[in-house]
Design brief:
The structure is a homotrimer. By secondary structure, chain A is mainly alpha-helical. Chain A has a domain of 181 residues. In chain A, 42% of the residues lie in helices and 9% in strands. Chain A has 23 helices and 11 strands. Chain A has a 3-stranded mixed β-sheet, with helices on one face. In chain A, helix 2 packs across helix 3. Chain A is globular. In chain A, 55% of the residues are buried. Chains in contact: A-B, A-C, B-C. At the A-C interface, helix 1, helix 3, helix 11, strand 3 and helix 12 of A face helix 17, helix 20, helix 22 and helix 23 of C.
């Protein structure tokens, strides 16, 4: 299987010419100094010989990246506020070469179940968050505390969520008068929920493939491809960095634009991008953002950008025009979040622990609130912690808004929790009556709360409409979207429908 | 409370450096001459000393604006076609300084209920359309004639709209077999309908706040924050300019891009942006708009832009490449609108008067058409006026389309009114039969037409689908959006649902 | 009617100055050489004299185009890989002038039913695909093989589609307990389905119009305006080039951006743009596309662009950074498509013949699959052809993805066909039972399958949700959009609704 690649029958000269000439897109700000690019490692050079021809898009993407144009040692020499890697040091062999193919795909080979011999090097297909942590230790540690890092287990280990998933994705069959849903296949889940939540990767064996270089052997992966936020990697680490730091350019310019968050936060269950793009903030981004600098570290309010993107409020380190810190960067997105506002039946204070499948509500469900809204308070942050997080977020708001504006906005936003939770509560009381009258089979009769038409109509309310209203209140102050597009109008319609269904069926 | 700000313990030098150095974004076209910026007034300089540090985003936004870089006197000296302010003159103290903090926030102090003593100056938090009118008199006067300027009262003073609002926003409760809706709280309305319509601002008292400068006193405002188009201001004036001329940059570049209109014209009740972005016009804007000049006054077809945005057709003054006027600028958006196509049960000729709550339909409702479609003709413009407005709009179309194109387009568009109104009429007949058979409680039995499930289903038709179809016909000529996304497909489905519900319930 | 235009009482000098000075937007790459623009033909110059003043937007659009700045002879001299016209030669009078007004609108005059005498020239209003084919022969021929070229007849000649169209667009009336739908008017169809599918143009007569040049005579066209993909032109040719090569700039930069495809591929029946814009590919386009070169021919992966747009995968010729061909350009979009995934009840292998109205399913319907899913196999491509097309598409994927990624992606995608077709089959069985129990009137009782509420609910599943899921699998790998926005969640809800409706009505 091993080959001497220098003999490879490929147009190496043409390839080198291509590498040398093509700098496809504007260099990232901060990388455009006049110093020549550092030389790649010999291992990476060997990779590039073939892969630049096999996958020109990957290589071009990487060539345009900071990873290709700086060594970790150079990056470590930046002044602290402008440093783009957080590890105190980087081990010697890595520190002095650009971060190329081999630096990541041959890193920590012994830890990766998918590592395989390839041209004399043990490489692995899937780079994990633990690989990235070698240089980006703080971000990896912060991210590990997020709900997102645990998105696979939080879904798959929660019996109620699995039940919901089955009644969305499972194959249906009707026998007599009964409609039933089968357990969804792994391939179906990977295509659906796990696309964003992340799959559990595994090595299923080895396959031989014919290539220009003869028969070669590769691992066969299950759960692949996947770039979900909570992917269970082949070194056992949780989470993937590539959903936001996309592919081989890893560009902070991409991560900071809302299109990145939109990949998973767009549907009616979490209409973040839709609400943002109908807000004043979204308007300014769409109208003027083409002139902003999305790469500056630190990121200066007013100097680099004029209105927030998702990253501004939730992740990025911000400074004023003098470089004075407004808020520290944190990949623990919850540092600025007092509430969890979507995905659950009721909104509630943020969970203390990112592993949510072990939470139990007062009525014994794997949920942060009972069906009647009572909170699993011991699993959730307390008011003092909520206040701290609210204050952190408000500090960002005040960079562009006076205090009375900020306080008025937050008062309305938190009022929205009260209102939407009251609507959910009323709808749930209606469903409970439907169940208690035997018009549908609920948990009291060992029925799934998700397998009948009227139950799914109830889901519409909390899964889509209540949280759409909350998002609109959180980001935009409300408006047309909140009322008419998946917001309060639809919320009222569900309650009327439940009432109409119950009234009619009860008469039967 | 008064302080000598020069003693303020702040990094004033650092601040001044920041102000001097940071010109964050490309200067607006027309402002980028080589002349030095005029000096701000002493009052504004005092404001900036603290607020540049407290709210760097606000100050940076303003620094990038024309307001910061020109004095009214300089602006008045432009040739008439290129003038950006319409008042014949500007009073002396204002005319010779850039339009800074104090020029607006301390203007007409005696008129503003929220004016308060702040560092020796009487300032007010909320700048009103009447403040803007000092320099922009024509725009303020034109805008005052719009439905938008009266959007608060047109909603709140119309009993039928209030009823609809209650059955969307009100809290529900179910007693026995009755579902009822409470009156929505002000905070809920402010978060929802009034976000776009505008709130009624009021001063609720005064509060002391601790600040870096000791305890300070501020007015407490209700209805704040708000930037709705029909906001009732604290000087009694109606309407806000900031929904379109956003925040402290006031940039015409923003107002002329469709993202601004999208803030309130996006949901299914008024899907303007969605239809636009699926039209040929929207395609050209999204594909090529980054190369267009959104700041030129006058705005030259072909030279500055290649396809219309919302502003092109509805507001802006347009010229050909020689500067020959195609259409005059008007902030009376209805100058080019023969029809009102959304928000009401039937489309109809535009109202004569922007105060619509006093209109009465032939059947006595506060609506421009009876439930059976008969028009309140005396309150609506006549055919001659419709023809004038149609001709004005068609003059814009003809800048890029031959006459046969334009006439064919308008013939189809007006046919769409006939068709959608026929569909609404049929649905309303079905609902009337539901009411007359006692299957739901309509106005004939003192019932709300909005509080039952089947009634809200009827609303879907006229509130969402009929007008979506009309918007598609108006802007795009129709297509996939009009048929399948909230258009004719959904319209047909409502009628089938009403029929199915009636047929089934009537059998009971 | 003939006039000597040099005497026209217009500001010709001003016009010429305008033409000379205004180069509104950045020149298309490749056109920006230093050579002076070639002179337009005398005939085109005569057109421009008036029309630049009458329709400045059209003329400016054209002035910015390659058509205005190159002659066909110059374009033919490009090296083959960079040629932008495919005809081997262009007839002499056309070859040596830029492609101006007269070159297209007076071309093949005898073939066009709308040709009319205008200032001494026989011109036609509507330029057809056969006109474009004079210079772009290969594209016209390729395009003629597409379903799109036949989109008018494929809709209008299919009785089942006409029936669906009638029950969406037709006027409803209710007599007794029967709801009926009239045949939709031509104007309504032109506004709706035919906007994208294309109208059948016809000349209805001649009209006189008063103009600045006296009374002039023009043809009256029915079906106009229209720019649908399958327009039946007045020379008998099928298809229009302007839906993608928009209006008078004909810019490849526009055609290659996804906003063009979005014009017709946006609604829930074909949510291509929505899915794309929530995918990683869409994210990269929206975040970084402003720096890409959309005009290069050939189009180099990595050098010109970093992620696919619609055109990359479906139409464009692609090369690696050295110019080595990755895939040949083809306006036969199906060359890369193994499946047809929308618009029909079941997804299925692509039809062999673009004329689909003659296809008959095993149960005798004008459909590629029976109501129970059995394929009209003899009308569809076989597995070998599917494999060829899949391989062509995968070759594009591999420019940026390793083989295991590509294979994993396609395995999941094709699994999605199995799953969505199973869901459609289950829903159809439910509807068949509804029909067989006489609860609705289906084809077995000479009823339309589209005229009752429960039938349209069944349509929702296959017309919207099954294909949304497939598009998400095809383009993005799935995720939030596929599950919650018109995908699997909604698919499950339809099945539950059909079951609930049947169970309840059967009890009656």
């Amino acid at each position: 299987m091993k080959r001497t690649w220098s003999l490879a029958p490929l147009g190496v000269c043409a390839f080198l010419a291509a590498i040398a000439i093509h700098r496809p897109f504007p260099l990232p700000a901060g990388a455009a100094d006049s110093a020549p690019d550092p030389a790649v490692s010999a291992a990476t050079e060997a990779c590039l010989e073939c892969h630049a021809l096999l996958h020109p898009g990957i290589v071009a993407d990487w060539r345009a990246s900071r990873h290709a144009r700086r060594t970790p040692a150079q990056a470590l020499a930046s002044e602290p506020a402008a440093r783009r890697l957080s590890s105190d040091s980087v081990p010697a062999p890595l520190a002095d070469s650009p971060v190329g193919c081999a630096e990541c795909h041959a890193l920590r080979a012994d830890e990766h179940a998918d590592a395989f011999e390839h041209n004399g090097v043990r490489v692995h297909v899937v780079v994990s968050s633990a690989d990235c942590a070698v240089c980006h230790a703080a971000e990896a540690e912060e991210y590990a505390g997020n709900l997102m890092a645990h998105a696979f287990g939080n879904l798959e280990d929660n019996a109620l969520y699995r039940d919901l998933q089955q009644h969305i994705l499972g194959r249906t069959s009707r026998e007599g008068d009964e409609l039933s849903f089968g357990a969804p296949a792994e391939a179906v889940k990977e295509q659906a929920c796990l696309y964003c939540h992340g799959t559990r990767l595994a090595v299923a064996g080895t396959e031989e493939r014919e290539s220009d270089f003869g028969t070669m052997s590769f691992p066969v992966l299950t759960g692949w491809p996947n770039q979900g936020v909570g992917r269970v990697n082949l070194d056992g680490s949780l989470g993937s960095c590539t959903p936001c730091h996309t592919r081989h350019s890893f560009a902070i310019e991409v991560a900071r634009q809302p299109y990145t968050c939109k990949e998973c936060h767009l549907g009616p269950d979490v209409p973040v991008y839709k609400v943002y793009s109908s807000s004043k903030h979204g308007n300014l981004f769409e109208s003027q953002g083409k002139n902003w600098d999305f790469s500056a570290v630190p990121w200066k309010v007013g100097a680099d950008f004029a209105a927030p993107t998702c990253a501004v409020c939730h992740v990025s380190g911000l400074a004023d025009a003098d470089g004075g810190e407004i808020v520290a960067r944190s990949h623990r997105m919850y540092d600025r979040l007092a509430w969890r506002i979507f995905g659950l039946i009721y909104s509630h204070p943020h969970p203390r622990n990112p592993l949510t499948s072990t939470i139990r509500s007062p009525d014994g469900l794997p949920l942060p609130a009972a069906l009647d809204g009572r909170l699993a308070a011991e699993s959730l942050i307390d008011e003092a912690e909520q206040a701290r997080r609210r204050a952190t977020m408000q500090g960002i708001c005040r960079a562009c808004h006076a205090s009375s504006w900020v306080e008025g906005h937050f008062a309305r936003y938190e009022r929205t929790h009260t209102e939407t939770n009251a609507a959910v509560s009323e709808a749930t009381r209606l469903l409970a009556e439907i169940w208690s009258r035997g018009l549908a089979a609920g948990p009291d009769r060992q029925g799934s709360p998700f397998d009948e038409a009227i139950e799914q109509r109830w889901c519409d309310l909390w899964l889509f409409y209540a949280n759409s209203t909350r998002f609109a209140a959180a980001m935009a102050g409300g408006g047309d979207y909140a009322v008419f597009a998946d917001g309060q109008y639809a919320q009222a319609q569900v309650i009327k429908d439940l009432h109409d269904w119950l009234s009619h069926r009860a008469l039967r």
